[in-house]
TrEMBL record:
Domain Enoyl reductase (ER): 13-306
PANTHER family for this protein: ALCOHOL DEHYDROGENASE RELATED (PTHR11695), RETICULON-4-INTERACTING PROTEIN 1, MITOCHONDRIAL (PTHR11695:SF294)
EC code(s) of this entry: 1.-.-.-
Gene3D superfamilies: Medium-chain alcohol dehydrogenases, catalytic domain, NAD(P)-binding Rossmann-like Domain
The keyword Lyase appears for this protein: no
Name of the protein in its database record: NADP-dependent oxidoreductase
Length: 310
C-alpha cells in the first residue's frame, strides 16, 4: 500500500501532540476526488483542535490528519464525480479535517477550480477565511448601504475580507485592531479603527446594526451595549454566545459551510485586484507543527500557508 506524509494528531495536547508521520494514501470514495496537495492554509482552528478545545463539538477518532483547507491538483476521481478530471487545479475547504497530507480525499462539491493565474499558496489562503467572512457578514440578514457594522479582529484572516465585503455593500465600517494595523484596515475600506489595547470601542461607537465578533470572550461581552434596537451580533469565535445573549438581544453563533461557487467568485476577484488577500508566510511542510504553534502564541500579521514542495 502506498504511503504518504501527513501531519497527524496523535493525542490532544501541546505542540508535540501533532507529528509528521507516514499514513496510507487515501482512495476517492463516491462523490470524492483525491487531491495532490500543493499548499494548505494554517488556521486558528488547528491548535484549538490539537489542544482538545472543540473535542465535545467535534469528537475525533485519533490519530487523525489535521488541516481544513487546501489547494492542489486532482489525482484521482471517485464514482459519480463529473465536475473534475485528473489534472484540474482545485481549492477548497475539507468540510472536516485532512488537508495536511500529500494526498487528501475531498468531497468534490466542496472544491472550486482555481483561476489560471493564481498560485497554489494564494489559493490555499482563501477557502476558510474569505468564505467565512462573506457568510458571517450576511448571516443575520441582508446587508445594505448605510448600515453601521462593527468588525472585531478586523486585521485578522476573516476580518480583512469582512471589511472589504462590508465596504462593498455600502456599510459604514467600524473596526477594532492594533494601531500597528490601522493603515491596513483603513486601506481595505474601514471608516474607523479603534485600538483594542489602548481604547474602549464601547466609548466610541454606538447604534451598531451588526457586530461581527471574530474575537470572542470579553470583546463579545462588551459588545451588547453598542447595538442599535434591532442590531445583532454574529460570533465566529464564541459558541457561548448562545447562552450569554441578554434577553431581548439578538446573538447568533456562526458555523462556516463549504460554498464552492462563492469561493470561485472570491478567487476571481482576488486575481483581478478587486479584493485583497494577505499571505505573509509560506512555510515548508516540516515547519508545520511550529507554524501551528506560532498561530497560537504570536500576533498574526496575515495568513500562513504551508507549501509541500518547498
Ligand atoms: N465558526 C466558524 O465557522 C469559524 C470559521 C473560521 C474562523 N473561526 C474563528 O473565528 C476567529 C477569527 O478567525 P481568524 O482566522 O480571522 O483569526 P486571526 O487571523 O487570528 O485574526 C484574529 C484577529 O483578532 C485580533 N485580536 C486579538 N484580540 C483582539 C481584541 N481583543 N480585539 C480586537 N481584535 C483582536 C488579532 O490581532 P493580533 O494579531 O494583534 O493578536 C487578529 O488580527 C477565530 O476564533 C477562529 O477560530 C470560526
Amino acid at each position: 500500500m502506498k504511503k504518504i506524509r501527513a501531519l497527524q494528531l496523535m493525542q490532544y495536547g501541546g505542540p508535540d501532540a501533532a507529528r509528521i508521520s507516514l499514513i496510507e494514501a487515501p482512495v476517492a470514495g463516491a462523490g470524492q476526488v483525491v487531491v495532490r496537495v500543493h499548499a494548505a492554509g494554517v488556521n486558528g482552528l488547528d491548535w484549538k483542535v490539537r489542544e482538545g478545545y472543540v473535542r465535545d463539538a467535534f469528537p475525533l477518532a485519533l490519530p487523525t490528519v489535521l488541516g481544513i483547507e487546501l489547494a492542489g491538483v486532482v489525482e484521482q476521481v471517485g464514482p459519480g464525480v463529473t465536475r473534475f478530471t485528473k489534472g484540474d487545479r482545485v481549492m477548497g475547504p475539507l468540510g472536516g479535517l485532512g488537508a495536511y497530507a500529500e494526498l487528501a480525499a475531498v468531497d468534490a462539491a466542496n472544491l472550486a477550480p482555481m483561476p489560471a493565474s493564481m498560485s497554489f499558496t494564494d489559493a490555499a489562503a482563501l477557502p476558510v477565511a474569505a468564505v467565512s467572512a462573506w457568510q458571517s457578514l450576511h448571516f443575520a440578514g441582508p446587508v445594505h448601504a448605510g448600515q453601521r457594522i462593527l468588525i472585531h479582529g478586523a486585521a485578522g484572516g476573516l476580518g480583512g475580507f469582512a471589511v472589504q465585503f462590508a465596504r462593498r455593500a455600502g456599510a459604514k465600517v467600524f473596526t477594532t485592531a492594533l494601531t500597528r494595523d490601522f493603515d491596513y484596515v483603513l486601506g481595505l475600506g474601514a471608516d474607523h479603527a479603534i485600538d483594542y489595547q489602548t481604547g474602549q470601542f464601547e466609548a466610541v461607537v454606538s447604534n451598531i446594526d451588526l457586530v461581527l465578533d471574530y474575537v470572542g470572550a470579553d470583546t463579545l461581552a462588551r459588545s451588547w451595549q453598542v447595538l442599535s434596537a434591532n442590531g445583532a451580533i454574529v460570533s465566529t469565535a464564541s459558541p457561548a454566545i448562545l447562552q450569554s445573549t441578554p434577553a431581548g438581544s439578538r446573538g447568533l453563533w456562526f458555523m462556516s459551510k463549504p460554498d464552492a461557487e462563492r469561493l470561485q467568485e472570491i478567487a476571481v476577484d482576488v486575481t483581478h485586484g478587486r479584493l485583497q488577500s494577505r499571505v505573509d508566510a509560506v512555510v515548508p511542510f516540516d515547519d508545520l507543527p511550529a507554524a501551528i504553534e506560532r498561530n497560537r502564541t504570536r500576533p498574526q500579521l496575515g495568513k500562513t500557508v504551508v507549501a509541500f514542495s518547498l
